[in-house]
Amino acid sequence: MEFSRDAATIEVVVAYHSGYGHTRRVAESLAEGVSAARRSVQCLDVSGMSEEGWTMLDQAQAIVFGSPTYMGGASAVFKQFAEASSKRWFTQAWKDKIAGGFTCSLSMSGDKYSTLMYMVTLAMQHSMIWVGTGMLPSAVAGAPDQANRLGSSIGVMAQADNVPPEISPPAGDLLTARSYGERIASMLR
Amino acid sequence: MEFSRDAATIEVVVAYHSGYGHTRRVAESLAEGVSAARRSVQCLDVSGMSEEGWTMLDQAQAIVFGSPTYMGGASAVFKQFAEASSKRWFTQAWKDKIAGGFTCSLSMSGDKYSTLMYMVTLAMQHSMIWVGTGMLPSAVAGAPDQANRLGSSIGVMAQADNVPPEISPPAGDLLTARSYGERIASMLR
Amino acid sequence: MEFSRDAATIEVVVAYHSGYGHTRRVAESLAEGVSAARRSVQCLDVSGMSEEGWTMLDQAQAIVFGSPTYMGGASAVFKQFAEASSKRWFTQAWKDKIAGGFTCSLSMSGDKYSTLMYMVTLAMQHSMIWVGTGMLPSAVAGAPDQANRLGSSIGVMAQADNVPPEISPPAGDLLTARSYGERIASMLR
Amino acid sequence: MEFSRDAATIEVVVAYHSGYGHTRRVAESLAEGVSAARRSVQCLDVSGMSEEGWTMLDQAQAIVFGSPTYMGGASAVFKQFAEASSKRWFTQAWKDKIAGGFTCSLSMSGDKYSTLMYMVTLAMQHSMIWVGTGMLPSAVAGAPDQANRLGSSIGVMAQADNVPPEISPPAGDLLTARSYGERIASMLR
What we know:
Chain A is of the alpha/beta class. Chain A has seven helices and seven strands.
């Protein structure tokens, strides 16, 4: 079938939920990084999973999880997706795929680590291989134009003000995501 | 109104989600402990929250959170409840209430700590006061009839086999929950 | 003995380790908050524990833990102190004392949550009662002069640049600590 | 130089601390698994690091971290090693090495997840690639002779009673470690 052949060409799937578009911007920047490294990539909104979406995930070499941090953890929508993945867990269908993660919230730190650690835990249940940002913290802590301005190594932490996603998160966080996409791409066979 | 008056008398609310009844049994044992200490208590299934449920929570002195551990964290249903509580977070309506937590899963350890830590994080966002089990680990690790057989201090960890909840979790875990209920009750004004 | 009498009057002990003085500044600001609430307080450097230090902790109503975040967690010096406290754990000598925590590191977020969660875990092993910051995040994320500029609820997160502690962490973080000290004081009998 | 040549042949280093020998048994079982997969391996006690030890780590393809869980987290001795590794962090000398972890404590669950998550965090700061156990939980929860009897996926969780390490941890935990060693070996170039 045509679709299956196309789906088979997606090497990296960015499986994300975004409430207001800020996390989506991080997802898109990450995807740009993967593309820049000449690997196929697709952003997949997990709030409305179809069979095609699951097939795309099953065929990918890498899955990068993304979610806002809501009330101290990954969003309920993302968690619903994680629970729906239990069918794959049962057969260990995602074993040895590359995994990564990112999150976005209103404050600089808050509980973003909690969300990323949940994603690590989910990936480990699936026997995936976790790859972090591979970046040292920015030279100037919090500088809006510097990559890894929040100083995270497990996955990408982004911060967005309560304004439209075109304005925030700032350039530095998008750079972090883009660079992470390149790193994820470099891990593929 | 009759209901409101009754609701106002509930001192401890056990706000839980249970997928197959095992976590509910832990909730009920915990409630027995609160009752034994002569404090009013009610188990509240958070999968179908009504205005009355929220009022009950708003008026309680203590809220104990309960959820199975699914795919490495609190259930999506529980997380949905947590996100719905953001209205209370915004006004800090639950500030200084006593908080506690429990979880149940198929394995002895697994990622139960992840679920409990999420509950601590949620409670801290609400500026609640966290009370743990206050128990040393059981003398014999894992002994099915001993309290705190899994050795948890943050909150109650229970383990249930894939059998009806009447059979599992074992007596030890229910004892842990009951004892925890007594401890929560002892913290009330 | 004079000292013992004085020690007995200390209601809040700030038990901290500081590598270069930045975490100490947070400790001192926290202590100022406790004092402002007219409660007795002492900062105790846990890198050189004496019998008097342990007695002071045993007699306190509240213990607030403090440590830099080094390589993703509480410092080894702090951990050594935590392990030395196992004698108190064994007899549950600190049961029902109030507990809190704070940490300081070079980046805005990094792994500060990891350090605070370790402190919660330690406190729960001691059957202490955990009190968080009780503060919403700052209106402007990261603003150096605003309280809770990093958006933490579990305990105080502070960020210090690689400059002398007189210059950094900024006023906002010291405000957060001071306010936390007042909150801890408000929890005492 | 002879030593350098030999050191260069070590593909997997098990960098562990053991207080009473129980964690060492887990380390040795893990090393057996690596050897069974025909990869060179050495157990390195991190409580007394020499220059040769650091060189061995620098030249390895994979480092597996091991520590008892003491007072809710990795031991102070292990943390001291982690902090000493900051020199490598600064130059990102361990970037892209494979990482894994294991822990052992008296109770079935307790705070072992806390220790493993700390090891993940440490590995991520070093930009290493994290590999978990890749195992589903045992069919019978807690069964002393079954692999992954405690149900961990992030790394190996072992439980040892307060008896000599020849007697405990039980066969199941050693099997888990051995199997994990084989998995780590399978990840090497």
